[in-house]
Design brief:
The complex is a heterodimer of chains A (186) and B (421).
Chain A lengths: L2 H21 L8 H21 L12 H14 L3 H15 L4 H22 L11 H19 L6 H27 L1
Chain B lengths: L1 H4 L2 E5 L1 E4 L1 H20 L2 H15 L8 E8 L3 E3 L3 E9 L5 E8 L3 E3 L4 E3 L2 E8 L3 E4 L1 E8 L5 E8 L2 E5 L18 E20 L11 H7 L3 E9 L2 E7 L11 H18 L3 E8 L2 E8 L3 H11 L24 E6 L4 H12 L3 E6 L11 H23 L4 E3 L7 H8 L8
Parallel strand pairs in B: 4-13, 16-17, 16-19, 19-20, 20-21
Antiparallel strand pairs in B: 1-3, 2-12, 3-5, 5-9, 6-8, 6-11, 7-9, 10-13, 11-12, 14-15, 17-18
Classes of the chains: A mainly alpha (186), B alpha+beta (421).
Chain lengths: 186, 421
């Protein structure tokens, strides 16, 4: 099995896992059904896009109907940004649930793994190419764990929640600004 | 030639965010936005890894890279394996990914995507013609794989020659022009093939004395030898009709057969010329010797629309193109009546003509009685055309394109082709 095919399988499984993780337990409020439908469709089309990336699209002038349908299908699979759609739908599904920080943290890890798997599959690369980013990924995981942990600390409802969210965003922004400098000095 | 096969060239790169970076950006920004809107800090935490990965983005790399593209062979026959070698320099520490985008009728035989600054892409050309081998896509990625520099450059033009048919034997006329060659003529001469014995006459060379015959007859006898002559062979192609399945049309078969005949005749030291007849005119190459003439002929075949020489007519060709006494080998499906009339005209001008019929297709027909009747009429018309040519002394042989050309030509290659004047 080539790295591309392995990557396609893993990306498909991770995408499906993201959708299932964020949808469970099923809810029927706030456009949950539409978001679930969108997430499933985007994940399925994204999973189809990767193995079909190497298939040449027929581009003759006079093509029979089946070939024209096949060409249109390939175009549909390749052009829209299915992975971005999956991310947005999955996050929306997660928002619809009541606060569960550890659940969201796991979803964040799986989403990043999903994006890395998609990238490895479409560039036909092995996971070895991610080695230079290992430190960044480890730092990101630490930030994720810290953020989830902070969110799990009981706090008064209302403005305190907003303040914690702003603080988390600020912490992430600060880390983003600091980490490259640290790497450059190193 | 070097220009055509490709040399080093500078290719401009267009840098932009990679799809991977765009996805990370979506996750990061959406996470932050949801955290701020919903007041749930865990979403900001979920966005953190993606934003950190994006922070490693570096400025764009070089504006252009130097690419050396070289075809292993600028000329190849149909189905013959060929390769294009690519070498990219000036990419710095960026990762280079090379992808071959095959052109029309180009079929890759190796992987079309390679990671590395050097690659060799193997391919075959499925159909004859002169066309670009395709395009090469170059993608440079930075260390974090967040920015991509892309460029697409055209591959050199490939001349794909029709796959020649098999032909080992040659059609030789019984009457040959008075020019030195390798075919044994019926007249005595200075060749090496024994022709007979005759009585010695003053002036004969002593080394020709046949001592065995002399001792038997009691008088000096000398051996005689056949003269060795060459002939002019004109390959006449009918490009007016192109019936048949793709890859085995009448024109495909005509080109493959003509190349085989040209190679066989040139190997026998004959002068070979080439005439192609199309709507609106003809194009020709005068008869010449040497293996190089094969490539001249094929290049003329691939010249496409430049074949047509406006206003020229087949029955008004100059003497240098159709030398008197030349053998004309015609490859035609015999569907064009004007062409058939021209053949009759040439025969009336005492040219020796041999027609290789390359028609292997019939018009589509249904099951109705009218369709069946139409097909029968069409077949009878075709038979009548071939019969009328045979009556004029023009032999017509059928070739299906798969067997060796030696088989249909066998009646005319075993002995000299006799032509009525």
């Amino acid at each position: 099995m080539t790295p591309g095919i392995r990557g396609a399988w893993s990306a498909g499984l991770l995408g499906g896992g993201c959708v299932a993780w964020s949808a469970a337990p099923l809810r029927h409020t706030g456009l949950a059904n539409a978001a679930l439908l969108l997430a499933v469709a985007c994940a399925a089309m994204g999973a189809l896009r990767l193995p079909l990336a190497g298939v040449a699209a027929p581009d003759r002038i006079f093509m029979p109907l089946p070939l024209r349908i096949w060409a249109a299908f390939l175009k549909l699979v390749r052009q829209p940004p299915w992975e971005e759609g999956t991310i947005l739908a999955v996050l929306w599904l997660e928002v619809l649930h009541p606060a569960r920080p550890w659940h969201t943290a796991v979803l964040g890890v799986v989403l990043v793994a999903f994006l890395l798997a998609v990238h490895l599959s479409e560039s036909r690369a092995t996971p070895r190419v991610l080695r230079p980013q290992a430190r960044l990924l480890a730092t990101g995981a630490c930030l994720l764990a810290a953020g989830a942990g902070a969110a799990m600390i009981p706090a008064a409802s209302g403005p305190a929640g907003w303040l914690r969210a702003i603080a988390a965003c600020a912490a992430v922004g600060a880390a983003v600004l600091v980490i490259p400098l640290t790497r450059t000095r190193a | 030639m070097n220009e055509d096969r490709g040399d080093r060239r500078e290719v401009a790169l267009h840098w932009r965010l990679s799809p991977h970076a765009r996805r990370l950006c979506t996750l990061g920004l959406a996470g932050l936005a949801i955290a701020l809107i919903s007041g749930r800090p865990e979403f900001a935490a979920a966005a953190a890894p993606a934003l950190l990965l994006l922070a490693a983005r570096r400025p764009a790399g070089p504006d252009r890279v130097s690419v050396r593209i070289r075809l292993a062979a600028a000329r190849a026959y149909e189905g013959e394996e060929n390769a294009v070698d690519v070498d990219v320099t000036g990419a710095g520490d960026h990762e280079v990914q090379l992808t071959l985008r095959p052109g029309e009728a180009i079929e890759p035989v190796t992987a079309t995507g390679v990671t590395g600054s050097r690659a060799r892409f193997g391919f075959t050309s499925a159909y004859w013609g002169r066309r670009p081998a395709g395009a090469l896509e170059i993608v440079l990625r930075d260390r974090g794989r967040l920015t991509e520099g892309r460029a697409v450059t055209a591959l050199p033009t490939l001349a794909c020659y029709p796959r020649p048919a098999q032909q080992r034997t040659r059609v030789v006329l019984s009457r040959l022009p008075n020019r030195l060659g390798e075919h044994s003529a019926r007249v005595a001469g200075e060749g090496i093939e024994f022709a007979g014995v005759r009585e010695y006459v003053p002036g004969d060379r002593q080394r020709r004395i046949n001592w065995a015959a002399t001792s038997r007859r009691g008088r000096l006898q000398v051996s005689t030898f056949a003269a060795e002559r060459s002939q002019d062979v004109i390959l006449l192609l009918d490009g007016t009709s192109d019936a048949g399945p793709p890859g085995a049309t009448a024109l495909d078969l005509a080109l493959r057969g003509a190349i085989a005949t040209a190679r066989a005749c040139l190997a026998g030291r004959d002068r070979v010329g080439f005439v192609i007849y199309q709507w609106g005119g003809v194009h020709w190459l005068p008869p010449r010797l040497g293996q190089r003439q094969v490539y001249r002929i094929i290049d003329a075949m691939l010249a496409g629309q430049r074949w047509a020489s406006a206003g020229a007519r087949l029955n008004r060709l100059p003497r240098a193109i159709l030398p008197p006494g030349a053998l004309i080998v015609v490859f035609s499906p015999l569907l064009d009546h004007t062409f058939v009339e021209t053949l009759r005209d040439l025969r009336e001008r005492s040219f020796a003509i041999l027609v290789v019929d390359v028609l292997n297709a019939e018009p589509g027909h249904g099951r109705s009685a009218i369709s069946q009747l139409t097909r029968r009429v069409w077949r009878m018309e075709q038979e009548a055309i071939r019969f009328s040519l045979r009556e004029l002394g023009i032999p017509v042989v059928h070739w299906d394109g798969t067997e060796s050309l030696d088989l249909p030509l066998a009646p005319y290659t075993r002995q000299g082709m006799v032509t009525r004047r």
